[in-house]
Design goal:
402 residues; alpha/beta; 9-stranded mixed sheet; 6-stranded mixed sheet; 13 helices
Amino acid sequence: PVRYYIVTGGRGSGKSFAISTAVMADQAEADYNILYLRQTLVSAEVSIIPEFYEKAEMLGFGDILKKGNTSMLNRVTGWRVFFKGIQTSSRDNIAQLKSVKRVGLALVDEAQELTNEEAFDRIDLSLRDKGVRNRIVLSLNPTAKSHWIYRRFFKAREVAEDFNGIRGDTCYIHTTYHDNAQNLDGDFLRLAEECRETNPEKYRNVFLGLWKGDKDGALWNESMVSSFRVASAPALLDRVVVGVDPAVTSADTSDETGIVVVGAKRIQGQRHYYVLADRSMRSSPNSWAGAAVNAFEEFEADRVVAEVNNGGDLVESLVQGAAGKRIPYRAVRASRGKITRAEPVAALYERGLVHHVGTFPVLEDQMRNYCGRDTEKSPDRMDALVWALTELSSKGSSGVVL
């Protein structure tokens, strides 16, 4: 007798297999349509649908299902499982999702990628057909506690992150690789144990599927961000800057290019700052340059600020080339460590002057966990944020060197 199912777990926990199997069993006799959702879904035909059909055959339902490019038809009942992305490459896809009639079950896989709580609400409220047991499943690998799913379903309800059971209208299911050990390769189990010994915090998050909290040695903590978060920025900002921290290469294993948009406005004699968007990506130089220019135009920014330690003049050439015209641009060079550069920016957060407009889980995760150790992965999004806020908070910066 619940509406929501929150399924959390770490790597190897078996949650995706279990959920898809349960959905297939449900669909065999369902008198409604089912939505299988991800934040983005490039090609269901070559990825998700084959995986689902495999489960159907295992359960003995293969003969009654017909595979399509973006859906699967139940030949007996006439109802379908639709595989869709919540967001397309340029905009959200909610209107198209709502066009599917008589949906009784919506499954959001990799729900940690859904950072827009409003988008979830619109999906949630679209499940309202009378006579249907309307249900929503959120399946995820937990990220930072700043994520709306944690705040809404765990913190606000005082539910433990590893709770199993029903609380109000929600069923919580938490699983780890220990629950699925009989189906896992020995090398995977060995890697998990090594991680437990060498990096306990990573082990808790990646393998035990627990939410990330504040980290000793990091400049930011959750309250510094969440306490001053806002739903929208003021109209007519004084300045808007796009901060860019370019990746050196564009391979699948390369760092991301950080692209963060920040605005500023003086309110009652005090300048406040608003983090408007995180457009960071792992892509080719032309693609990230295009994304930076798109952000510049979308938010009517007055400058792009980019670190050029690794790219030099090439970075500006890429940005100006993507724009197709001359746009305001400033090159900045890093001569000090990331923590040292970030300290003045963190001080602005401590004073309550920086406001995140909505949530940015990956960016905020980097902020709350980066400690400046040599073994840590480069915090590209955090770097882009620091460059943008440094530009906005500096007095007449010219060729900033930090």
